[in-house]
Design a protein that fits this description.
globular
């Protein structure tokens, strides 16, 4: 099984081979991400683990392509986000983590 860095490179190569990087835009890719997120919601509501896994993978592909448009890696974005959230304090409210405003 390839590691995530290798998979990211393979997704970028796939997107390039299909003309996505040359013929799409960040806004169009954003729309594709929203489409895939909607599919994730449908899979969750249907309690369908196979479709949930598929939708999450598709979302990740769209985000990798979005990152490529902006010259960053998905790993860099995740690292940056984790640095922020790892210090975040908050509490659970109705099953959702709500961050403290301090």
């Amino acid at each position: 099984m390839p590691n995530t860095d290798q998979l990211e490179r393979e997704v970028i190569a796939w997107a390039a081979d299909r003309g996505i990087l040359d013929n799409s835009t960040p806004v169009a890719q954003y729309s594709k991400t929203l489409e895939e997120v909607t599919e994730l919601l449908e899979a969750i509501l249907d309690d369908n683990p196979v479709e949930i896994r598929d939708a999450i993978g598709d979302i990740m592909v769209t985000l990798i392509i979005q990152c490529t448009f902006w010259g960053v890696s998905i790993n860099d974005c995740l690292t940056d986000a984790f640095e922020v959230i790892s210090k975040r304090k908050g509490k659970m409210v109705n099953g959702v983590f709500v961050k403290d405003e301090n």
